[in-house]
Design brief:
- The chain is an all-alpha fold and 251 residues long.
- It has a single domain (13-242), classed as Up-down Bundle (Rhomboid-like fold).
- The chain has helices at residues 3-9, 12-43, 57-60, 68-89, 91-124, 127-142, 150-160, 167-180, 197-214, 223-242, and strands at residues 185-186, 195-196.
- A hairpin with an 8-residue loop joins strand 1 (185-186) and strand 2.
- Helix 2 (12-43) packs across helix 4 and helix 5 (91-124) runs antiparallel to helix 7.
- The longest helix has 34 residues, at 91-124.
- The radius of gyration is 19 Å and the shape is globular.
- The protein starts with a helix and ends in a 9-residue tail after the last helix.
- The model has no long low-confidence stretch (mean pLDDT 87).
Length: 251
């Protein structure tokens, strides 16, 4: 496989998204604790009541990755499927689709978190404890600590642990591939036979839904953002198909 040839054949938006995400990941890791934590603080998505929240984070979070594994799997999926979808939609619409899926994923996660935070605040029902979380919760997490009270600890995680990564937008791309090329065979490492793209996407969606319902903060994965990216992607594709503004031959 000639990777250089494949790279040269990638359409421009997919190629530049790969480059931008990799450069930002490298900057976070190269500058380390001196500047890396500040980049995450200002760029990663915080819950809107957090003192570190900025509206721009709804956009910037999707270009940030902390670990190499996180970066690799998101960029590998973008590399494999992004070019196909960009060629099908056109570069401008593909960029709009990618960003919209990412922002939509953030909005859905923030919305569901708002419901969960409200529930946890009602359980605690202690203004002093809530003020303590707002004032010192983020600092405690930065030091690897949390509150002893399990409800306060859970609420602190919801409010003060940021979300970062292109996963929401990437899941939107996976959804688009399954929507536009539903019968395209996909070869997965853990399956001995190919699976049609529509079933792969459906399987990923079900897994993310079950994981989100499990509501386990220890897995450190933004399942709600993944689902949000798929939901926004589906809504956009259905709208474009209804308006006959995209050509879907295989649906």
């Amino acid at each position: 496989m000639n990777l250089g040839f494949i790279w040269r054949q990638l359409p421009p938006v997919t190629k530049n998204l790969l480059i931008i995400n990799t450069i930002i990941w490298a900057a976070i890791n190269v500058f380390g604790t001196r500047y890396g934590s500040s980049i995450i603080q200002y760029g990663a998505l915080h819950y809107f009541s957090s003192k570190d929240f900025l509206p721009s984070q709804l956009f910037t979070y999707m270009f940030m990755h902390e670990g190499f594994g996180h970066l690799f799997f998101n960029m590998f999926a973008l590399f494999m499927f992004g070019g196909v979808i960009e060629r099908a939609l056109g570069s401008k619409r593909f960029l709009f689709y990618f960003v919209s899926c990412g922002v939509g994923a953030a909005l859905i996660q923030e919305g569901v978190f708002a419901i969960m935070v409200n529930h946890m605040e009602n359980l605690i029902d202690n203004p002093l404890a809530l003020d303590l979380i707002a004032r010192d919760g983020a600092s405690a997490l930065h030091e690897g600590k949390n509150f002893i009270n399990p409800d306060m600890a859970r609420l602190n995680v919801l409010i003060n642990i940021p979300t970062l990564g292109a996963s929401g937008a990437v899941y939107g791309i996976l959804l688009a591939f399954g929507f536009m090329f539903p019968r395209q065979p996909i070869y997965l490492l853990f399956l001995p036979i190919p699976i049609q793209a529509r079933w792969m996407v459906l399987g990923y969606g079900v897994i993310e839904l079950l994981q989100a319902m499990n509501n386990n903060p220890a897995d450190n994965v933004a399942h709600l953002a993944h689902l949000g990216g798929m939901i926004f992607g589906l809504l956009m594709l259905l709208y474009w198909r209804k308006k006959n503004t995209i050509d879907i031959h295989h649906f």
